[in-house]
Amino acid sequence: MLQGTRREARERALELLYEAEAKGLPPAEVLIGLPVTPDHFAVALVTGVGERLAELDAHIERLARDWTVERMPWVDRSILRLAAFELVARPDVPTGAILSEAVELAKRFSTEEAGRFVNGLLSNLAREVRPDSAEAPAP
Fold first, then answer.
1. Does 122 have pLDDT greater than 70?
2. Alpha-carbon span 52 to 89, nearest angstrom
3. Fold of the domain spanning 3-129
């Protein structure tokens, strides 16, 4: 799959996770209700986040200084869950790509400060769950 296609799939997955939050639905239910099935990678991300939500939130909350997952803005929380899932469960995806894409999503859909927060938290998670990764965190 091409990088642009994965970038688009991540963006679509973010939209669907945000929709699930807004509607108070499990991510799988949002997928079921779609008239057109999204890209396979987007479906895998949304499904994976939904299946491992408690585990992902535990990682995020542990690494977030002075923040609970519930207090985070919906979009930031969705970005963190999406990238945390990739770091934990998708060893086929390079660490640098995950971090870079998450920071770009945060800057695009949230704030510059959110980009820094997302980068810091995910870089720490990457060091824990991918200690052998030689890739540097996103700038």
1. yes
2. 9
3. N-utilizing Substance Protein B Homolog; Chain A (1.10.940)
CB 88 within 8 A of CB 49: no
Render pLDDT for 27-71 as a digit per residue (tens, 0 to 9): 999 999 999 999 999 999 999 999 999 999 999 999 998 888 989
Cα 123 to chain centroid, rounded = 13
Domain boundary assignment for the chain: 3-129
**Count of positions (residues) in the chain:** 139
Q: How far is CA 127 from CA 7, 36, 83, 120, 124, in A?
A: 23, 37, 14, 11, 5
Smallest CA-to-CA distance from 103 within 131, 71, 136, 132 is with 136
What predicted TM-score, i.e. pTM, was given to this entire model? 0.90
